[in-house]
From TrEMBL:
Record-listed heme binding positions: 466
Keyword Iron: yes
Superkingdom per UniProt: Eukaryota
Transmembrane segments: 20-43
PANTHER family in the record: CYTOCHROME P450 (PTHR24296)
Similarity field: Belongs to the cytochrome P450 family.
Cofactors that this protein relies on: heme
Keyword Metal-binding: yes
Gene3D superfamilies noted in UniProt: Cytochrome P450
Keyword annotations: Heme, Iron, Membrane, Metal-binding, Monooxygenase, Oxidoreductase, Transmembrane, Transmembrane helix
Protein's name in the database: Cytochrome P450
GO MF term (any one): heme binding
Length: 540
């Protein structure tokens, strides 16, 4: 047991010092303080009382060792690929990472049980909200119980209005026409390499600000460029996710207490985000409730009429920014990456659009209803997120001991994660061609057929299902259509000192992000693109 405790302490210290430059005197003194803290904690009586909990931090099983030593990275490009491999090979499609006290499942019955049948036994939980608390505060993404019910009710009232679809359609249309297309035209004229992931982040940020807050971020009176805030957002998301990956919360809590390393960076990033969110509130008040939105009741004004606490409002804004910005940008990035690799799918999308909208490539969609007629496009967007879900995994905490439908026992206070990325790669759900990008699997006689949401929980499912699914699909389909009809987008070579990879490499974060961005060259849409060889699609 002593040895095990030693390895825990060492491992903790090793993790503690990542990001802190060794050699400096500051680090040496910090090391002494931290070692003293760890020793003190180790021998404190409260820790002896929690002894059985500590023991679970040590595990010599192959999976836990591969996790602790990052041994998986010798064979797999991404942690999610390793988990997908383990889950595929598990007879129940459920695995345990003991050192994380984490049950991970790709079993649709278990997913339905967690997200619907026993929803109340699988909340986000205190541990999760503490990890994300500094970043997300009491925003909808990070709370359970009454605060969640209240925010969900308010948001649902707004998002379920009939007029919201055409409003969303107009917002997205404006962003594409006035911001996105001019940027790509410029890139084409200059023949430069463009990072589409970055472009999509800006596009989705602007769209969500207009849609949810009735504000154009360009109107914000900020002393810093908006890109600084975007960078802070990325950093806060990445560093908060890293907290969840540490073996013990003690590690990041000590770092936060000492304000060192990644925790120092996180604090700085959160400060920046606070400035942005508070400016959104200030502007919204200044403009009154008659903004660019024709709806007096955009999401933010609805919340502002009921809540007077600016910190709470700020948290709500940050959650909506996170919900609407990173996820959509992530979905667009992988969609365009897949389309660049599958010209046959691109051709089918163009063919269908020609049949519905007409052959004038400068003519855009006229309405939300017209967009709904594009079944192949809908299938391609869903297929893209099957293989590359923007939220690759999502964790809940088990309140009381429970048994999942596949017989897995889940101990109270431990984490249970469902894994859409792995589920998209299961033969049992998608058949033997599950690794292929094949939109046709979603079509029956040319019409889009949705999958059972517990088999495809890309937007989560059950009681806490995503509230912005329609908005997200609207953005995805409109951007794909507008860009593909005007431009031919080619993948560019990776940046210097980076290898060429045939599959994406993801950076750690709350949403899937390509670690090297999506570097492309924008060309004129060539005539060869329009000479479709495929058969016309049949819609009844
Ligand atoms: C492709 C894009 C998107 C994907 C894949 C996605 C996925 C998800 C997922 C997996 C959750 C559950 C998160 C959790 O509880 O841990 C969620 C929740 C949520 N999403 Fe989305 N989302 C997308 C876009 C959007 C957009 C554009 C909006 C806003 C208009 C939005 C608003 C929300 C909100 C408010 C919640 C919280 C729901 C609740 O807790 O009751 N999402 N989304």
């Amino acid at each position: 047991m002593e040895l095990e405790l030693e390895s825990f302490t060492l491992c903790t210290l090793m993790q503690l010092f990542t990001n802190i430059p060794f050699g400096s005197t500051l680090c040496l003194s910090l090391a002494i303080i931290i070692i003293t803290l760890v020793i003190l904690t180790t021998f404190s009586s409260s820790l002896f009382l929690r002894w059985p909990k500590i023991i679970t931090f040590f595990c010599s099983c192959e999976t836990c060792q591969a996790y602790l030593t990052s041994g998986w990275s010798k064979t797999f490009d991404n942690l999610c690929d390793w988990y997908a491999h383990l889950l595929r090979n598990s007879p129940t499609k459920t695995i345990h990472i003991h050192v994380l006290r984490n049950t991970i499942t790709a079993n649709p019955d278990n997913v339905e049980y967690m997200l619907k049948t026993r929803f109340h036994n699988f909340p986000k939980g205190k541990t999760f909200s503490t990890i994300l608390g500094d970043f997300l505060g009491r925003g909808i993404f990070n709370v359970d119980g009454e605060s969640w019910s209240f925010q969900k009710k308010m948001a649902s009232l707004e998002l379920s209005k009939n007029s919201i679809r055409s409003f969303a359609f107009e917002v997205v249309k404006f962003e594409i026409k006035d911001r996105l297309i001019p940027l790509l035209v410029l890139s084409k004229q200059n023949d430069c390499v463009l990072d589409l992931q970055d472009v999509f982040k800006r596009f989705s940020f602007d769209s969500i600000c207009r849609f949810s807050f009735g504000l154009d971020p360009m109107c914000l009176e900020l002393s810093l460029p908006i890109s600084e805030f975007a960078m802070s957002f990325d950093l806060a998301s990445k560093l908060s996710a890293e907290r969840a990956m540490s073996v013990s919360p003690l590690i990041w809590k000590i770092k936060r207490f000492l304000n060192v390393g990644s925790e120092k960076k996180l604090r700085k990033a959160i400060k920046m985000i606070d400035i942005l969110a508070r400016e959104v509130i200030r502007q919204r008040r200044k403009m009154g409730f008659s903004s660019i939105s024709p709806h007096k009741d955009d999401l933010l004004s609805r919340f502002m009429r009921t809540i007077t606490d600016d910190t709470y409002l700020k948290d709500i804004i940050v959650s909506f920014l996170l919900a609407g910005r990173d996820t959509v940008a992530s979905a667009l990035t992988s969609f365009f990456w897949l389309l660049a690799k599958h010209p046959e799918v691109e051709s089918q999308i163009l063919l269908e659009a020609e049949q519905v909208i007409g052959s004038d490539y400068n003519k855009d969609l006229t309405s939300y209803e017209e967009l709904q007629q594009l079944h192949y496009l809908q299938a391609a967007a869903n297929e893209s997120m099957r293989l590359y879900p923007p939220i690759q995994f999502d964790s809940k905490f088990c309140l009381e001991d429970d048994v999942l439908p596949d017989g897995t026992f889940v101990k109270r206070g431990t984490r249970v994660t469902y894994h859409p990325y792995a589920m998209g790669r299961l033969e049992e759900i998608w058949g033997s061609d599950c690794f292929e990008f094949r939109p046709e699997r979603w079509l029956k006689e040319g019409l889009f057929c949705p999958q059972n949401p517990f088999k495809y929980p890309v937007f989560q499912a059950g009681i806490r299902v995503c509230l912005g699914k329609e908005m997200a699909l609207l953005e995805l389909k409109s951007v794909a259509l507008s860009l593909l009809r005007r431009f031919h987008i080619e993948l560019a070579a990776p940046p210097p000192h980076h290898h060429h990879h045939s599959t994406p490499r993801f950076s750690p974060g709350l949403t899937a992000t390509f670690s090297c961005g999506l570097r492309v060259k924008v060309r004129e849409q060539g005539t060869q693109q329009r000479q479709h060889t495929t058969q016309p699609l049949h819609h009844s």
